[in-house]
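Hi C.,

You asked whether I'd gotten around to modeling the 470-residue construct. I have! Everything is below, sequence then structure, no commentary in between.
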Amino acid sequence: MIPEPTTPPRLFGTDGIRGTTNAAPMDAATVLGLGQALGQHFAAGGPRGRRRVVIARDTRLSGEMLEAALTAGLVGAGADVMLAGTLPTPALALLTRSLRADFGVMISAGHNPPDHNGLKVFGPGGEKLAEAEERAIEARFAGAQPARPLAGPALLGRANRIIDAPGRYLEAAKAAFPRGRSLNGLRLVLDCANGAGWRVGPTVLRELGAEVVAMGVAPDGHNINAEDDPLTPDRLGALVRERRADLGIAFDGDATRLLLTDEQGVHVGGDQILALLAEAWQREGRLAGGAVVATVMANAALESHLATRGLGLLRTEVGDRQVVAGMRAAGCNLGGESSGNIVMGDVATTSDALWAALAVLAVLVEEARPASALCHRFTPRPQALRNVKLPGGHAVPLDDPHLRAALAEAQAQLGPTGRVLLRASGTRPVLRVMTEGEDAARVAAAADQLAGVLAAHVAGQHSVASGHAT
């Protein structure tokens, strides 16, 4: 009997491959194999010479170990490796494109805790790979595709370090700020989460003229995202008020996600940033496509607000890769996520916290008004977000009749204008529960009730799977 073909296990989530350090897939042996698979995958594209790849990493202690393993796998597959050192993820995307590399790999787990790490892979244009390419890499790694021989002794790749990689990104970021404007007279609080933006972030803002109160700029390998999630508006807002700053800015570990607080310490989320930039760019005649691209998580009030300005809101699935694809399809140059991933298609191919912060600052400088008067463009509809932890490798069948009944009940509580969204996180072992509606109390109650049903269901299934059922 001919065995049925098996589907290779998924390694890539919504934002690359992630896991606990020194456990598969984020152990040295697995990453070496992934390096080989990546080198073979891109070499399979044709006979055009030796392939070149750029590698960067954030400040996690495990980054150097994984960099060495990844480099060994790629060199063994015949690829030349350019090591950029510690850089933000968007800087890696920029270097991949500007150096005409065949692909780039960022070693980072973004906003995840310090004991996690991951790989984000970018194609030659500096954009994240399409899902079909990810699946092909997974198949090659799992041996589901015919093996391609590694490079012979004379065809091994080489590894070299890029001189002043941060400087290249720093100058590109400053060049993106409008000519004739500066940050003179502004005091900014910047939290870099002890992550990849710890050096370039404060440097760019200071060289553009701002007084910068920097925190999270002493990485030691263990303290990246030390607060578990650095994007905590209360902590940032308290320091903004204490230092009488004009704006509070926070990056996550690889400087892709942005959080802002105004001068009063009030949180400014990703939806508000999109509205601010969309209106400013519309006035300047630079907003392309007549719309903004956001995800299913975007607040309904953002859509209503943009409509009053004659602008549309196009929704995609969660993930900045999905946002970029939606922007490309619709001819738009602005998109992002409620979580603070902002993509500006004219200057970047992925979300960039520093460049998004600079775009907001350019509006503040032009308008010469405080952030509290500019950054809160609309009143959001009440939303509630809950996370339900999943045991490792555990999946919840969302078509279970009990869960479907709980979803229907939550929707009924919120009424016809309410929304219920349930999805598995692509970066952490959790289920995300989002409810939205007109009444804040009902929204919170529906989220709590649904999260409770899910948590009980997960616990019951895990107990059975572990052999502890009674």
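If it helps when you're writing up: The domain at 383-465 is CATH 3.30.310.50 (TATA-Binding Protein).

Thanks,
B.
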